[in-house]
Design brief:
By secondary structure, the protein is mostly helical. 58% of the residues lie in helices and 2% in strands. The chain has a two-stranded antiparallel sheet. Helix 3 runs parallel beside helix 5 and helix 11 runs antiparallel to helix 12.
Length: 288
């Protein structure tokens, strides 16, 4: 698409890139004075927004790490939650001193990276579904990704020809592809799906459909509220609203039983839940 746009000469908006490797503003250098021309009391006043940013960055990092290190991914190497958070903190300090964008976790990119490294068995029989074997754990792809990101500063003469619609299409594909297998997205589709066409989800066996819809509606309302706050002038309180979801989840104990929440919370993979449910049913039949 980039080549077609270049050959045909479509007047599409292009990626804006700098022409030289230097700070974006001429009145500043590579390092920023933390206080600058501001009065001394602004350091104390900055503690409040800094606390909100800390909450948001901590939750963003930990949520991304938990999703990547889920048990159904069958990772063999151990996780490093504290090391990851330490590296993010160090890079935040470096980026702040140099006036660069903050180095934070990218949830969608992390999920897409893990999905691209999935290993599945070969299908030998017609109609046989491939079996998930695990994740190809290595450091080559991550190293090459960030190496190419660093080298991109030397390719600005080429990157300026990339149309913005192409980038939006790539980002849209990454976002949509990462929705596969997310229980919240599967439950959203149940609103418009007749009962006879509904998949055999384990939570549909043990939780009434009206309660499944009620649980999904609560999540959807919270998502809409968070998005509304994020795009409004009240975005400064967005981290506090994310933290408030903990209390919303606690309040759900008044509307749902612990057994229902155990199936709706998606604490373990769907496949493992079905295996456990099958063992329980087999045990009940033997007792009868």
């Amino acid at each position: 698409m980039v080549l077609l746009d270049f050959v045909v000469g479509i007047p599409s908006p292009k990626l804006h890139v700098p022409h030289a490797f230097k700070p974006t503003r001429d009145d500043r250098g590579w390092f920023i004075n933390p206080i600058g021309p501001n009065p001394w009391w602004t350091v104390l006043a900055a503690l409040v927004p800094a606390l909100l940013c800390t909450i948001l960055i901590f939750m963003d990092q930990q949520i991304s790490a938990v999703i990547v290190n889920r048990k159904e991914h069958k990772l063999k190497k151990g996780c490093g939650y504290h090391l990851d958070l330490f590296m993010v903190a160090v890079m935040l300090g470096v980026c702040s001193v140099m006036g660069l964008p903050w180095f934070v976790a990218a949830t969608v990119l992390s999920i897409t990276h893990v999905n691209s490294l999935k290993v599945e068995s070969d299908c030998s029989a017609p109609g046989e579904q491939p079996k998930f074997l695990g994740i190809r754990e290595q450091r080559v792809t991550g190293l090459l990704i960030f190496a190419l990101m660093g080298c991109s500063v030397f390719f600005t003469s080429v990157l300026k020809f990339i149309p913005m619609p192409v980038l939006y299409g790539v980002f849209l594909y990454m976002g949509v592809s990462s929705l596969r297998g997310i229980q919240f997205f599967d439950r959203l589709k149940l609103f418009w799906m007749p009962a006879k066409h509904q998949p055999d989800f384990i939570y549909l066996r043990h939780v009434p459909l009206r309660k499944v819809h009620f649980f999904t509606a609560i999540q959807l309302i919270c998502l809409v509220l968070l998005w509304t706050i994020k795009v409004s002038r009240a975005a400064i309180i967005f981290p506090m609203m994310v933290l408030a979801l903990v209390f919303v989840r606690k309040a759900m104990d008044l509307c749902f039983s612990k057994r229902e929440l155990s199936f709706l919370d998606d604490l373990m993979p769907e496949r493992k839940k079905k295996l456990d449910d099958g063992r329980n049913e087999a045990g009940e039949e033997e007792e009868d």
